[in-house]
């Protein structure tokens, strides 16, 4: 049974009031994954990006949008990034949602990956 827009908005408002973390993934995830079973870059300079609750839009029509640029600048080889995930903790935690990238990105030393404001949406889409 689908959620009403009002219910979806209430759930999103409550969920995005708590910190979440953006994980970059080197292996495609599935809904059976947890925050512990995700395949993230193994490089010492990689960590999940903290998503401050202040930068989520108020949800409309069951969807909210992240409104702040995120830039990754690896010093080491992070491998090929093929997806990203929203997680409930800086390590381990729960897998909240995930999305595949339109095209893989090779994160070699001294490369840059920028996720522009407005590119991450979260909700009942």
* Total of DSSP H or I helical runs spanning 4+ residues: 1
Largest sheet: 4 strands, antiparallel
Beta-strand proportion: 25-35%
Low-confidence stretches: none
- Helix-strand pattern, N to C? HEEEEEEEE
Q: Rough shape? A: globular
Q: Helical residue percent?
A: under 10%
Number of strands: 8
Domains, number: 1
Main sheet: which strands, in order across?
Answer: 2-1-5-6
Helix/strand structural class? mainly beta
Distance between the termini: 14 Å
Radius of gyration: 15 Å
- Residue-averaged pLDDT: 93
Give a quick summary of the entry:
With about 120 residues, this protein is mainly beta.
Explain the overall architecture.
By secondary structure, the chain is mostly beta strands. It has one domain. The chain contains 1 helix and 8 strands, in the order αββββββββ. A 4-stranded antiparallel beta sheet has the order 2-1-5-6, with no helix packed on it. Strands 3-8 form a two-stranded antiparallel ribbon. It has a two-stranded antiparallel ribbon with strand order 4-7. Strand 5 and strand 6 form a beta hairpin. It is globular and about 45 Å long. The relative contact order is 0.27.
Give me the secondary-structure topology.
Layout: H1 5-16, E1 20-25, E2 49-51, E3 63-65, E4 70-72, E5 79-87, E6 95-107, E7 113-115, E8 121-123
Antiparallel strand pairs: 1-2, 1-5, 3-8, 4-7, 5-6
Task: Looking at this protein, list some descriptive labels.
two-stranded antiparallel ribbon; 125 residues; globular; 4-stranded antiparallel beta sheet; 1 helix; 8 strands; mainly beta; single chain
